[in-house]
Design a protein that fits this description.
homodimer, 197 residues, mainly alpha, Arc Repressor Mutant, subunit A, Tetracycline Repressor, domain 2, 9 helices, 75% helix, DNA-binding
Chain lengths: 197, 197
DNA sequence: CCTTTCATGGAGTGCGTGCTCTAGTATTGC
DNA sequence: GCAATACTAGAGCACGCACTCCATGAAAGG
């Protein structure tokens, strides 16, 4: 008998489709992108598409899960004894760098507006949770060391750092003169001002 | 012959449809909302809908134009000799208050993700422009008086105030514990920290 | 009264969509 | 080489959508 085809090849194809979808979603949004458009972008037939992903929605969820995992990995890689405030600032800089890729920025913007679909909403909530849970301990430690203000709980301070990141992303989309490269330094400065004791 | 119908009644109907659409768009997004759903919400038939708006897109543009006008009016109503920094902070507080209405928040989120449609993008760009042009003079005056930092041009400082507002809106959507009422004061404080000399 | 115009609902239409089916081709194990 | 399975393409399908058409009602001149 024959058998389980090369899993590497399988995974590579999956990633190629994900990559094509990312490009399409970033430009025309989730609902505005047809599976046919993704197939065209990826250079495959629709049969192939649905061989790798049972539905269009499952593809979106796969991308979201990928991003969530990446966030998890980023925080898992931080050494426990690092300087807390540096980690917070490093994450902000890291996120800003990712947003330099307009595909990422466009995708995030497109996806956070897929509303009323429970599976997507829980995936987004999970992503937000992982981010909050990854960042908050460092904020708390920084607070314990007196590096950041103490008039708000770590939970709120963390949320406000994410406010800056969310807003940064939004401005990139709507303001031509506002570029990730040009404003990255100001972003880190803004975080410092926000957290300063 | 008969005649030009009562324009008041006409306008009222239009506003009722706009109101229904706002509700629907806020919950399920633009693409996720069918004209049938808007008709159901407004309690009208589809014939009536297309009697008032030629297309679904034109309805969206009408809502956007309405919001842009409101922003224009808000700034037009500020007296020229007012304290500049107070005006900036007042606008921030005003915007935060509007976002207390979850329909507004949801609508804005839904609409900024309608991508790849030129008419919508230009309408959004106009809205952003009106906001920037309304706010920037006050920031500039505040800077001239030494009320705000001078290491960045007024244009950038204004953009960063809008970053905070955009981010505030985004957090409201994704973070259950982050409420407009609870965080409004922190928002104004964040603006002060951002602009402080 | 009658006539003209706007207002309204809802059945109907054509099209684009996500997805399925099937038939053919590569790739694997023996 | 052969059989069995995975992979691939694309024609086709059912459905939901934005939008149209038409019949009817209501209000305002004359």
């Amino acid at each position: 008998m024959a058998r389980t085809v090369d899993p590497q090849r399988h995974e590579a194809r999956r990633l190629a489709i994900i990559d094509a979808a990312l490009t399409c979603f970033a430009v025309t949004g989730y609902a505005g992108t047809s599976t046919a458009a993704i197939c065209r972008q990826a250079g495959i037939g629709s049969g192939t598409f649905f061989h790798y992903f049972p539905t269009k929605q499952s593809l979106l969820l796969a991308i979201l899960a990928y991003g969530t995992d990446e966030t998890r990995r980023w925080f898992a890689a931080r050494p426990d004894d690092a300087d807390p405030l540096s980690i917070v600032e490093a994450y902000v800089a890291h996120a800003a760098e990712e947003m330099s890729d307009p595909r990422i920025a466009g995708f995030v913007r497109a996806v956070t507006a897929v509303m009323g679909v429970p599976e997507v909403e829980t995936a987004l909530a999970l992503d937000a949770r992982v981010l909050q849970d990854g960042l908050e301990p460092w904020v708390a430690r920084a607070q314990a060391r007196g590096q950041v203000r103490a008039d708000l709980p770590p939970r709120d301070l963390t949320a406000w750092v994410l406010v800056l990141l969310d807003g940064f992303l939004g401005r990139l989309a709507v303001d031509e003169a506002f570029t990730a490269e040009g404003q990255r330094a100001t972003l880190v400065d803004a975080v410092r001002r926000l957290l300063a004791p």
